[in-house]
Amino acid sequence: MRVSKVTVKRRLLLILSLGLCVFGVFIGRLAYVQIAQNGELTKKALDLWSRRIPYEAERGDILDTRGKVLATNISSPSVLVVPIQVRNPEETAEKLAKVLGMAEKKAYEQITKRQSIVRITPEGRKISNEKAAEIKSMSLPGVFIAEDFKRDYPKGHYLAHVLGFAGIDNQGLTGLESYYNEGLKGENGHVAFFSDVRGNRMSDLKDRYIPPTSGSSLMLTIDSRVQSIIERELNNAVETYHPDNALAIAMDPNSGEILGMSSKPDFNPEQYQKVPAEVYNHNLPIWKTYEPGSTFKVITLAASLEEHVVNLHKDHFHDSGAIDVAGTQLHCWKRGGHGDETFLEVVQNSCNPGFVALGERLGKDRLFSYIDKFGFGKKTGIDLQGEAKGILFKKDRVGPLEAATTAFGQGVSVTPIQQVAAVAAAVNGGYLYEPRIAKAWVDSESGQIVNRMGPAEKRRVISEETSKKVRDALESVVAQGTGRNAYVQGYRVGGKTGTAQKVNPKGGGYMENNYIVSFMGFAPANDPQIVVYVAIDNPKGTVQFGGTVSAPIAGRIIGDSLSAMGVKKQSGGLEKETRWPDQPLIEVPNLVGLNKEKLRTSLFDLKLETAGEGDVITMQSPKPGIKVKQGSTIMIYLGDKKKTDD
Question: Residue 221, CB half-sphere, CA atoms under 13 Å: how many?
Fold first, then answer.
């Protein structure tokens, strides 16, 4: 059967149309690939051809409140290998192994891996610049030196638990390095070069350099002058008493800023692997929980004054040495008791039965209400990881005995930072602040502050009137009571001693002859600028009392810190009550204008040192009126005429 010409033409037209459609699809697809997907496909091709040599970002520095560097970076390059470009694996492995101090077999295994880029780990990570230069000079094909940095802590053990440390990849692992890692770490950069499947460099494509972006620097509230004093005193305490551990905190009570913080044993952040994990993981001022003992009495005192249940000067208490609570005898530390005493003397003497009486006047509900208001039983919110919240009695399980022991700091578990924040609120006018260590973010390039963290006030817990009464009472503790060893001439110091038995972790009950002795102090008492807490755990070779061991340490920290901070000494305040074996202080006489011949005929229970030439005393140090210990040295300056003493 013959097909008509018309049918043939139709079929040819149909085939042609289909062919044109298919051709159009191919042309459209080609145009789409060449035009619309050009950028994306080119990028994928370049990614397949490219090899990236990373450039590690510098972490931001950590600075103290005056800009002193506490943590920074030092150049510490790393070795990278592109295995496909290595021409002679045996020779390359031998040379690398020799410089890096590694087994030749291990080096060979690493540089022959079926990977695009291999890091020689760990021997080739963070090496010295000298080793890096030696490897560069060998010009080994496929071997590259990447710019890396290693975290450097120029002051070693100084502030170790607070700063923490960063790992080999510059990732913050503990302390502030971890808490503020996102802001400190920056963004890595790289150099990308292009090579074919055989590893040959493609010279017609230029290398691409993406610079790293440094992290921001972190300025702290830490004052290195105060921190250095704390470190000195704790190191001396460790040498003298060989305690299980020791800690100290200094805070600005008017803002919650931490001025200094340290605990022993400590470690070098650059060598943290050399100490047990419990040393570098446990920042004792925020992690350690224990019964506070008598330092907790400040809270009972503040609550009693705020609720007007006691007049410290007019109300009296008779201390027979013990008090009966629900059939249990609670004893005073002084055998036989203190006899009749005002409640101010109860505070000065740290009399347990007297504080039980205050707790009973308050009642369970009001006492535990103030404990809650002062922040106990919950985290303070300090900007450090690992903070504990302590343990309190559940109020529905608190009977007369539990309320009584809580009133003098036994049976509850708190952290040092909770105590510091609470006492700061008791003496600063009644404001509870969130403790903090970070002060501001600083641009690493310009040095300009880009974000400042302000004080975080939580709430007011007592009135200014009550706070003043607390300050006055605690000043009398240092001048006339159990805290006399914390007295600092020229600064009005207030405070409270603490001697707490340690709970036996094995069998319950309390351990024998094993105490945490502490002191909480502040100054000046009329305008507090610093609160200092010191705790020494199980000091050896001494009487284990807070007033004997911790008070003098805290006193030196307070006095030296205020002096370093530029807080002027002042007159007034309570005079220290001298008791055996104390020696009375001597008031420095006015020597300016005296003739040195007349001076030789004068008798002073002081040592004299002279400077300058002449016959007349023109200046002296210390100034007249300052009280010093017997045998102290007075510096006198000689000249030809009298000058006014500044």
Answer: 25
Angstrom distance (rounded) from CA 110 to CA 113: 6
Question: How many Å apart are CA 268 and CA 271, to the nearest integer?
Answer: 5
Based on the residue annotation, tell me whether 294 is a catalytic residue of this protein.
yes
- Answer whether residue 510 shows pLDDT above 70: yes
Query: How far apart are the C-alpha atoms of 490 and 479, rounded to whole Å?
Result: 12
Q: How far apart are CA 568 and CA 91, in angstroms?
A: 71
Q: Residue 618's pLDDT is what?
A: 85
State phi, psi for 144 to the nearest 5 degrees.
-130, 155
For residue 195, the SS3 value is strand
Collect all residues with Cβ–Cβ distance below 8 Å to 327 and sequence separation of at least 6: none
**Ramachandran assignment for 421, one of left (phi > 0), alpha (psi -120 to 50 degrees), beta (any other):** alpha
The answer for residues whose C-beta is within 8 angstroms of residue 603's C-beta and 6 or more apart is none
CB pairs under 8 A, 24+ apart, for 443-447?
443/216, 443/217, 444/58, 444/60, 444/61, 444/214, 444/215, 444/216, 444/217, 445/214
Spatial neighbors of 14 by CB under 8 A, at least 6 apart, are none
CA-closest candidate to residue 549, choices 519, 579, 513: 519
Pick from 9, 61, 467: nearest CA to 254: 467
pLDDT digits (tens, 9 = 90+) for 419-472: 999 999 999 999 999 999 999 999 988 889 999 998 999 999 999 999 999 999
User: What three-state secondary structure class fits 290?
Assistant: strand
Region of poorest pLDDT, from 8-22, 62-76, 493-507, 600-614: 600-614
Percent of the residues in the chain that have a pLDDT greater than 70, as a whole number: 87
CA distance 159 to 9: 94
Give me the percent of the chain exceeding a pLDDT of 90: 53
Tell me the CA end-to-end span of the chain in Å, nearest whole number: 134
Kindly name the residue from 78, 294, 467, 550 that is annotated as catalytic: 294
| Predicted confidence (pLDDT) per residue in 332-375, tens digit | 988 889 999 999 999 999 999 999 999 999 999 999 999 999 99
Tokens representing 439 are: 């002060």
- Cα 235 to the center of its chain, rounded Å: 17
Question: Is the predicted pLDDT of residue 605 greater than 80, yes or no?
Answer: no
Q: Inform me whether the pLDDT recorded for 207 exceeds 60.
A: no
Q: Which of 238, 287, 257, 72 is nearest to 163 (CA)?
A: 72
List of residues 6+ apart from 405 with CB closer than 8 A: 330, 411
